[in-house]
Design brief:
The protein is mainly alpha-helical. The chain has ten helices and three strands.
Length: 229
């Protein structure tokens, strides 16, 4: 599978955010963001030469970024073929949702002790998804949904929890990107996201946790059904 032809334009914009010579962590951040946006879909072969030229980074910097993303489960290296965006399995989905229940559930239950501004970020993500839905931009709704769950993880007040949530959501987005009908997948969760935020804002962490648990159960079943189909 090939990446969309306009990816070079997007990475040329990213290049401006890199210091001269670049840093592997920042390059990894850029590639991770573009993967989760669907610019590099699952199964895409990442051309080392094309990426180096687009980003203006060294071979070693890019290879270190590849290594970091491979460690996160986003990329895979195939001998004599190159580096590819990973295609997840049903077992991956089950494992990711097990971890989501642990991390996001604990974060929701911690809302009373959440850092300043953390709950506002949940609200902003909800509103961004609703605005995108009004425009019929369902891929953007999916991106805003990722922001929502990242913001949920932020309620834990832990850098490590936030980082873990960010990585697992990036990996899970590889599954979302292959769903044939993004509206059918994302639309039902718009109201649920709003409900979770309203409960959190009202200080009802227990009910918010219950709604989130049902949400994750339903989403996991939907994705596994898609794999079976």
């Amino acid at each position: 599978m090939s990446a969309p032809e306009d990816w070079t334009v997007r990475l040329a914009e990213d290049r401006a955010s890199l210091d001269r010579g670049g840093y592997s962590e920042r390059v990894a951040d850029i590639l991770r963001e573009r993967i989760t946006e669907g610019i590099f879909p699952p199964g895409t072969r990442l051309s080392e030469e094309a990426l180096r030229e687009a980003l203006g980074v060294s071979r070693n910097t890019l290879r270190e970024a590849f290594r970091l993303l491979s460690h996160e489960g986003l990329l895979t290296h195939e001998f004599n073929r190159g580096v590819f965006v990973r295609q997840l399995t049903a077992e991956d989905v089950r494992d990711l949702y097990t971890l989501r229940r642990i991390l996001e559930g604990a974060a929701v239950r911690n809302v009373a002790a959440a850092p300043d501004g953390a709950l506002d970020r949940v609200r902003v993500a909800v509103e961004a998804a609703e605005t995108a839905a009004d425009r019929g931009a369902w891929v953007e709704v999916g991106t805003a949904n990722m922001w929502f769950h990242q913001a949920i993880g932020g309620l834990a007040g832990s850098r490590r929890v936030s980082e873990a949530v960010r990585q697992l959501l990036a990996e899970l987005r590889l599954v979302f990107l292959v769903m044939s009908a993004p509206r059918d997948f994302h639309e039902p969760y718009l109201r649920t996201n709003r409900t979770i935020y309203d409960l959190l804002a009202a200080g009802d962490a227990k009910r918010a946790d219950q709604v989130l648990a049902r949400y994750l159960d339903a989403a996991e079943r939907q994705l596994l059904d898609a794999f079976d189909a």
